Amino acid sequence: MTKDLGKVWAERMTKQERDQSFPDSEPRDAATLMLIDRSGARPKVLLGRRHLNHKFMPGKFVFPGGRIEPLDRVMPAASELHSDTQKKLLERVQNSGDAFARGIALAAVREMAEETGLLLGTQRDQPPSVPGEIWADFAKARVHPDLAKIHLIARAITPPRRPKRFDTRFFTTDVSSIAGKIEGVVGPDSELVELTWVPIEEATHLDISTITGVVLEELAARVAAGMGHDLPVPFYFMIERQFFRELL
User: Fold this and answer.
1) Each residue of 219-248: pLDDT tens digit?
2) How far is CA 19 from the centre of its chain?
3) At 219, phi and psi to the nearest 5?
4) How far apart are CA 197 and CA 22, in angstroms?
5) What is the CATH number of the domain that holds 203?
6) Which end of the chain is less congested by CB atoms within 10 angstroms, N or C?
7) What is the C-alpha separation between 169 and 183, in angstroms, rounded?
8) Which of 120, 77, 123, 132 is nearest to 101 (CA)?
9) Smallest Cα–Cα separation from 203: which of 187, 219, 190?
10) How far is CA 30 from the centre of its chain?
């Protein structure tokens, strides 16, 4: 990927029209996960369409995700994060440690289960010793999260003075990581009303947010570069109404 292309993406985010008249707030740590299928000639990603009654991005196609919860930091896993991924997760983060790095990745896995019903990891004879009810479905299905298979693709902080602010880490893992499924999670009365597999280049034409479109292109570039854990991770943030893109 050229530096010029990264600059184009940052400029696209800067030019997006947004209301920044709200009281400022600290961004909350969040994670999202892009499930990818590279078995065919055209890699596909899984997107969900949000319910039209949601106040936050109604009707838009999104990646499953949400805020980190305290129990995410202590959920056991079949494997731990790749050392390069863990290192990048701790860059430009204050008062954090290994528990935070694994917790933010596990938050993405948990949110995938809660919003799509898909349990990612490795199924074993014995269930994991879950720390609380929010991880109970993994114990019932005997699925252990497999952090070594998770790649960090990007990080982005919502601009200041927006109604909701998140410091979001965008992860990806392969479709082969699906080890179980909870039925009835997606439907007309759920947070996500439908799921769809779409080639990456076509997904950018759906009704998506600007950051989702940019991260999809970052994902395509990562796939083309071989998906190595050691590849640099872009970090998007705004200073004085201008977005910047730095590499972690």
Assistant:
1) 999 999 999 999 999 999 999 989 999 999
2) 24
3) -65, -45
4) 36
5) 3.90.79.10
6) C
7) 27
8) 77
9) 219
10) 8
Q: What is the token pair recorded at 28?
A: 């909350």
Which range marks the domain in which residue 153 is found? 3-247
CA atoms within 13 A on the CB side of 216: 24
Q: Can you tell me the distance from the alpha carbon of 148 to that of 165, in angstroms, rounded to the nearest whole number?
A: 28
Backbone angles phi, psi at 30, to 5 degrees: -145, 165
Look at residues 214, 190, 192 and name the one whose alpha carbon lies nearest to residue 203: 214
Count Cα neighbours of 145 within 13 Å in the Cβ-side half-sphere.
29
pLDDT digits (tens, 9 = 90+) for 128-159: 999 999 999 999 999 999 999 999 999 999 99
Token pair belonging to 82: 């790749």
Alpha-helix runs per DSSP H in 16-71: none
CA distances from 5 to 1, 8, 214, 233 (A): 7, 5, 11, 14
Which positions ≥6 away from 40 have C-beta within 8 Å? none
The structure's pTM equals 0.93
CB contact at 8 A, 219 and 36: yes
Cβ distance 19 to 158 under 8 Å?
no
